Sequence to fold (127 residues):
Amino acid sequence: MNYNITIRQLTDEFEITTRTLRFYEDQGLLNPSRNGRNRIFCEGDRTRLNLILRGKRMGFSLAEIRTIIDMYEDKSGERQQLEHLQQKINEQRRSLLQKQADIVETLAELDRVEVGCVERVRELDNG
DNA sequence: TTTCTAACA
DNA sequence: TGTTAGAA
Fold:
C-alpha cells in the first residue's frame, strides 16, 4: 500500500532531474522523509509532485503552487480550497490574455514600422 | 554506483 | 534549474 521510492525512480517516472526535485524541496513544495541523508519518497510525495507539475502546466509560479497544494492537503474546507484555486485560475487567465493582447499590439507596431521602411526605400529608388 | 550538499565560466 | 566538485 505505502511504498518508498528513490529520487532516481521518481525522476525517471516524471522525466525531471534530481536537481529539480531537490529544488522543489528547497522551495518548500516537497518534503520527503530521510533515510539518513538520502531522500525517501512515498505515495504522498508522488501525488504532490503530480500537483506541482500540473500547476506548472497552468503557468503558476512555484510559490503559488505551494500555497495551492498546501490548501489541497489541508482536509478542512474543501470549498474554500476550490474557490481559491478558481481565483488563481482567473488571475492566470487574465494575465495570459493581457500578454496575448500585448503581443498582438507589438506585432501590429512591427507591421507599421515595416511599411514605413518599404515606403522610404521606394522613395530612395525613385528619386 | 548512487545520492548529497553547496556553489557558480 | 543546469552543471559540477568532492564527500559519504
Notes: Chain A has a mean pLDDT of 92. Residues 6-8, 18, 22, 37-39 of chain A lie near DNA strand B (CB under 10 Å from a C1').
